[in-house]
Amino acid sequence: MTADPRAVALVTEAARAADRRKGLAIRAIDVSSRLPLADAFLLVTGNSERQVGAIVDEVEQAMAKVGQPLRRREGHEVGRWVLLDYDEAIIHIQHHEDRAFYGLDSLWKDCPAIVLPAFPGEDGDELARTA
Fold it and tell me: Model's pTM, two decimal places?
């Protein structure tokens, strides 16, 4: 089983939005064979609570533009680990300390990666922000 194309499109759009706010270690994972709740996860790191919040806002705006309603948001008040549930795609935006501590990358290491395109930066150069 592989992730639904719609889930791949959603995590790609969310990754593009996260990249606009300088999100780091952007990684998409196909969890469709291991998790019945979603097809794809997107993991993004921010260096501060403020940056985490900015990434969350940008992702929510991007998803609204493509017509994908937010099902649930958790952790926004604290700004350390925010989970955005878009049904088939779940976005995890974490402070760098929380990402290292909770180890979602290790937890889902057996799941295949979803290849994300390189996104052009403000200066036109391609940014390599994937881990």
Answer: 0.89
